[in-house]
Specification:
The complex is a heterotrimer of chains A (340), B (205) and C (759).
Chain A: E1 5-7, H1 12-22, E2 34-37, H2 43-48, E3 56-59, E4 71-74, E5 77-81, H3 86-90, H4 93-98, H5 100-107, H6 112-117, H7 120-124, H8 131-134, H9 176-182, E6 186-191, E7 194-199, H10 200-203, E8 222-229, E9 237-242, E10 253-262, E11 265-274, E12 281-282, H11 284-290, H12 297-307, H13 319-336
Parallel strand pairs in A: 1-3, 2-3
Antiparallel strand pairs in A: 4-5, 5-8, 6-7, 6-8, 9-10, 10-11, 11-12
Helix pairs in contact in A: 5-9, 11-12, 12-13
Chain B: E1 22-23, E2 50-56, E3 59-65, H1 71-78, E4 97-100, E5 103-106, E6 119-121, H2 135-142, H3 152-164, H4 171-177, H5 188-204
Parallel strand pairs in B: 1-3, 2-6
Antiparallel strand pairs in B: 2-3, 4-5, 4-6
Helix pairs in contact in B: 2-5
Chain C: H1 21-26, E1 41-47, E2 53-59, H2 61-64, E3 69-73, E4 101-102, E5 108-114, H3 117-126, E6 128-133, E7 146-149, E8 162-163, H4 166-172, E9 175-183, E10 195-201, E11 204-208, H5 214-225, E12 232-235, H6 252-263, E13 267-270, H7 273-279, E14 286-294, E15 300-312, H8 322-325, E16 334-343, H9 356-374, H10 378-384, H11 402-413, E17 426-427, E18 430-442, E19 444-445, E20 448-455, E21 460-463, H12 473-485, E22 492-495, H13 512-536, E23 550-553, E24 556-559, E25 564-566, H14 567-573, E26 578-585, H15 594-599, E27 606-607, E28 617-629, E29 635-645, H16 652-671, E30 677-678, E31 683-684, E32 702-707, H17 731-743, H18 754-758
Chain lengths: 340, 205, 759
Amino acid sequence: MRPFVYEQPTDISAAVAIASRFTTEDDQPTRANVQFIAGGTNLADYMKLGVAEPNRLVDLNRLKDPGLRQIRVTDDGIRFGALVRMGEAADHAELKRGYPVIADSLRLAASGQIRNMASLAGNVLQRTRCEYFRETSWHCNKRVPGSGCAAMEGFNRQHAVLGGSDACIATYHGDFAQALIALDAVVRAEGSRGARKIPLAKLHRQPRDTPEIETDLAADEIITAIEVPAVPWARRSLYLKIRDRESYAFALASAAVALDLDGDNVREARIALGGVATVPWRAKAAEEALQGKTLDEVSAGAAADAAFAGAEPRQHNAFKIELGKRTLVRALLETRDMKV
Amino acid sequence: MSQPSVPSTLGLSRRNFMTGTVSAAAAPLLVSSAKAEVPAAAGAALREPVVTSMRINKQAYELSLDTRTSLLDALRDHIGLTGTKKGCDHGQCGACTVLVDGKRVLSCLSFAVMNAGKDVMTVEGLASSDGKLHPMQQAFIDHDAFQCGYCTPGQILSAIGCINEGHAKSEDDIRDYMSGNICRCAAYPNIVAAILQARDQMKGA
Amino acid sequence: MDTAAPRPKENQGQPLPRVDARLKVTGQAHYPADLPTANIAYGALATSSIAKGKVAKLNLDDARAVPGLLDIVTYGDMDTVEKPKFGNSGATSIGPLHDRTIFHDGQIIALAVAETFEAAEEAAQLIRAEYDAETPTASFDSPGAATIPAAGKSPLFKEDVKAGDFDAAYREAAVKIDVRYSTPTQHHNPIELFSTTAFWEGDQLIVHEPSQNVTGWKVELARQLKIDPAKVRIVSPFIGGAFGSKGPMTPRTAIVAVAARRLGRPVRCVTSRMQAFGTQTYRAETRHRIRIGAGKDGRITAFAHEGWEVTSRPDSYVVGGTSATGRMYAYGSVLTHVSLVQADRNTPGYMRSPPETPYVYALENAMDEMAVALGMDPVEFRRINEPKTEPIGKKPFSSRSLIQCYDQAAEAFGWAKRDPKVGAMRDGDWLVGMGCATAIYPTAVAPCAARVRLTVDGDVRLQCGSHEIGTGVRTVAGQMASERLGVSIDRISVEMGDSSLPPAPVSGGSISTASVCSAVLKACDAIRAKLYAGATAEGGPLAGSHNEELDLADGKIVAKGGASAKVEDVLKTMQVGAIEEYAEFAPKGATPEALKKLYAGMPEFHGGEQDEDSVKYAFGAEFVEVRINRYTREIRVPRIVGAFAAGRIMNTRTARSQLMGGMIWGIGQALHEATEVDSRYARYVNRDLQDYLVPVNADIKDLQVILVPEVDHAVNPAGVKGLGELGNVGTAAAVASAVYHATGKRIRDLPIRIEQLLA
């Protein structure tokens, strides 16, 4: 690991100022000399591996603003402070009751220890776990732009079938963001150019020919909150995660589903997919396919086909198309059958 | 009690650790930073040790540390508390689990300097001063919840954290919430049995 | 508490808690990297990123500029010491710093040593190599793979066993199968990281390193460093899991020792989890072709097992499991052949049940397929083919309780309730399948020495250079002394894991309990003899009694008539403060050199199929239930039952734990574990615990171990069959059998994953 200077500002503007002083507008947040750290579960790992090489860490855990550590569930929706830990959110009673898809996505992620450490904002921003990205001796366009992608023709069982490009097929491994994107969440960020709101759907960038650009954030911007507009019918929602072992593993495929039903008829569906795409993946085509339909195995199957219509398989991950579809079908039927 | 053969030549401890309530474990000997490449942006502070205070097993410590030193390495190499184990150093195995302010965390993924002012509990701090084991320690013995014993300190701390979090209500809960602690000897069913026993005793305590 | 400590049945010892349990739950058990060492410097390895070629240039400038850097050991710095040797105690013949040739991915190219761990890691990451790279051969199907016969390439695998006329019998068989199986690359991944701490006190070298073989390493390290073995001490009081990985010494040990000598201070190098995949040994991938022919009555008339195993270019590592599979059932005729396939890979090494895990998986999966082809119950099929003598040498089994194991496990599992029709059992959206398979492991034993001292205060000190890798050997050795000397276990201290202790064989091949306990038994019996002599001597408290009328219990010598004498008083009459005995145990059939070789770190193994009088194996039967989701096809194992017979069980608690751990390993073999090799580069891809999956707590639900009583005096004086490697044999085949039962899909390539069941 490269040496770094450790800073612990106590307010957001000071944190932004430090980052602003040591970065330029052209710096990609993931590659900048200054990195913000909260839980550290992703960043410390990548610093040890030499994937992230900041020379300055700005610890956000001393920020005083109490809102950063609060979850508020109101009639307007949910406001998550950025520094709330995953474990705390997963156990939040009102979330579990009103938005099970969110609580489930957190509970099924990582391990108890990691959930106690990782902040919600950091979790949303977590970087891919692609094996070829993790180890610096492989060619990786995301880590070293233009160096090539070893995963493309390599062992790519974990890799994405949706949202990839010729430059990168690294999967977005998070779970929480799938639930968020399905519910039209927005993040609030503060940087040297002021505060702004970014729809979660616009936060992550597909790799295209610049996989090194992972998000829409600037290097000196800090996520301060995540907001989810109220969805009263989200009580009927769940997050289904399919993985090789029963716990503590990344999704091979996952589905975040929320349904507004009239009997078995779909008034509105919200669907996002995980484990199969390069970014948190909203499956609008699947949602549209279900609208107004009676939800059964056939209509769910048609929605799943729509969701994966543009999927591009590689040598070892082709099964994810079939698995992803079945995961969605199962999630839709299980959501339909929920007692709410 | 059987004691392993501790080599006679090694009786000395690395430094005089824990000789008082405030113990200044020496900073790693850093050669002068004159030779270091100091990027202009970083200024002179790069590679300067940072003094960090924390409470570990109810004792106050003041440590002078490389900012890169993980809480795990600080415990092991700077304080001599080697009960906390390094199994992967990347947050994948759980062997390094300790309680920080009562919550179980992975000490390998936490920079020590980030723990200033915190209360850290390691396996060495669980038994009472008269030698009475914590109910979880005793339960691990009773149910043979380990074989090689290497992941055990992390399992025990994680198990205590799991109960404190309220995630030990059922066997399935315990299995899921303990899945961040890999036991390669695979004592899992015995670990679950031990946690059930200790859970009930900890409630009664 | 009853579950973890089963009530002992016939020929089974008490479920005493582990004697080192308190140390382990309080953090006071010191593993080698925990041992306090003054003025330590930290080492970090730099490893190759290619698998074949030469290191053209090594740029060390950036690394040397790191503040706190003390030294870099690399090419040229090892020239004064000998290269490692493969075989016996050595993991590989590749001396990574002896020349610039790269034989495999992740080969050591330098060791950076610094004042701090952080500086050493930083420096190691800054070491840059330029390579003259060549296209490497990754595995079986890669261009450049060379296939050679395995027989004779290893002293442990002399020939391809055969019996009768397979070709004719197979041709004429009424029912036959011809099937192929494969098992993947696997790494042991003990949770303790591999490490070496070395320091010199004058010309004496002390090494703290987790080891299953302290005596062997002492000799091999001394050979490499060209010093007297008496000047080398290997210290390994606790070992954080081993599974074979800490049996052979790797080249790192000598490199760290050289670094410590150059610096004149202790150096500790803890290998990263990722680096361990290339710098340690592993289980290489295997392939199998099995042909079985049988009559319509289910009697096997023809059995052929061909195996292919990957090894490195320079070293012929052979597992050769056909010597076991060829003897398992009453086959009629047997044909076997094992081939090695050389590739540009690090040298494989033994990993928990090295031959049996892959070979018995293939055999037992084939047995299940054959039962299906015959329309027979798989348990019945095995019962029909239960042999009176093994088919190769026609020797009897010293004991064989396989059918008892099947009966007891089937009963506990509820096998009778299984609907044999494929896909017939369901629970909501979950397909239910049930399957079973045989476990088998050869029973071997090796020479071993032990020193036991009984003091007038009633304390016992037991010393033996064996290794506590989690098996409980420290506990059962103490238990043996406790039983023989009539002393409570808490008065017994057991010292192990140090090459300065009486030598024990490598803790591999499931021989430790048998070998160590036989030596301890011998030492204790010598102490008994002296005590009896003292007690019955003229003027002694039991004068006139005969030895055969005496027994030792609760600190007293008790005569048949009821008279007794305290051990303490006997020692006083003898005018001694303690009796100490140093015993050397050599198994039946040992060569005249056997004990000499023990001290030289080359213990002879006896037993298995090698003995003249009988073949010696432990057996078991495992039953599993799998559940597979109707939509998404993930596979879970909610229930597993294993029944095992392994001669005398020293301690039902530690025995059950080992078997349980083995069964869970078996579930991992079946469903999770595989190291992926990038075939273009012959490099490991998933080299950490994030992507190399092993079972976690949530994967294991209802698990039952049955210890079937068995008495076998032929195996060794202790009557013990090893069981550390028995539990994980067969499990994967039982899972495959259950998956077939649930889905109708016969999966022949491990691990069984979701994608194989989606199609």
